[in-house]
TrEMBL record:
<protein>
    <submittedName>
        <fullName>Uncharacterized protein</fullName>
    </submittedName>
</protein>
Length: 65
């Protein structure tokens, strides 16, 4: 999937990029290694921003361009 999106649309944090992965079934699953929680729940979408940074966001943080 390579859909162009706005991340955090209509906010002062708005950025643009391309969806590079959809983690669908993994949403809401915390990451644990060796019994230690190292991250909060997984996010639904991986988005490669136009500035070459990668962000992980939920559906409500995105809007199609």
């Amino acid at each position: 999937m390579t859909a162009r999106v706005r991340v955090f649309p209509s906010s002062d944090r708005e950025v643009h990029g391309v969806v590079v992965d959809d983690f669908g079934d993994s949403v809401g699953v915390p990451v644990e290694i060796g019994g230690n929680r190292i991250a909060g729940p997984a996010r639904r979408w991986a988005v490669m921003l136009d500035d070459d940074n990668l962000v992980f966001v939920d559906s409500h943080d995105l809007e199609a361009e």
